[in-house]
């Protein structure tokens, strides 16, 4: 029986050794569909997911992950990719969706105002935020916004490095959705940052603008797959009620 959200979160561990037992690719794919429902900045969905089931490709990626056990013993791999470079395409997709969703003759004035506001956001604010040339425009915007910010609240994350962080945050949120979904059906995962990301990009034939967010090993945990009891610092050390 599928676990509840709380049960899945408690069950999820970073499993580094997997049983030599196959897992259902369709179930992994469904968990990736759940990943696409994660929260994402401005609904741009600047992510891609590469579900690795081909053993030859898996072996290559495992070597790029330094043949750590979480990759070498995994039954399948998932590579989460941040795609900040696709912002124009994703902006257009949102505009097309809004035009279709609001293409009704009986819409009230409130919804027409909402459509106008949303289209203005994607047609003007998003291009202004994401467009850059070698980081120069982003730095100029950053200086201007810091100056304006002296007098009123303003969005300050406008540099090229800031937008990369935004894309990676969204990709990581999607990865967490995936891991919890896998845990809910009794499958295990391990997010790996230790890898040669350039080699992985070459293996997957990714374009220059794509960035590896993380590689996840997938399978069913072996008895020795969890290296120790779970440790978390005391909740009161991280919880602040204001």
Number of domains: 1
The name of the CATH superfamily reads: NADH Oxidase
Question: Pairing-aware structural class of the strands and helices?
Answer: alpha+beta
The CATH architecture category equals 3-Layer(aba) Sandwich
Q: What are the secondary-structure elements, in order, as H or E?
A: HHEHHEHHHHEHEH
Number of helices, where a helix is a run of at least 4 consecutive DSSP H or I residues = 10
Low-confidence stretches: none
Structure, explained:
- With 242 residues, the protein is of the alpha+beta class.
- It has a single domain (1-242), classed as NADH Oxidase, CATH 3.40.109.
- It contains ten helices and four strands, in the order H-H-E-H-H-E-H-H-H-H-E-H-E-H.
- The protein has helices at 5-11, 25-35, 55-64, 69-72, 87-101, 109-130, 136-148, 160-184, 197-203, 235-238, and strands at residues 47-52, 76-82, 188-192, 211-219.
- A four-stranded antiparallel beta sheet has the order 1-2-4-3, with helices on both faces.
- Helix 2 crosses helix 8 (160-184) and helix 5 (87-101) packs antiparallel against helix 6.
- The longest helix is centred in the C-terminal third of the chain and has 25 residues, at 160-184.
- The chain is globular and about 60 Å long.
- 28% of the residues are buried.
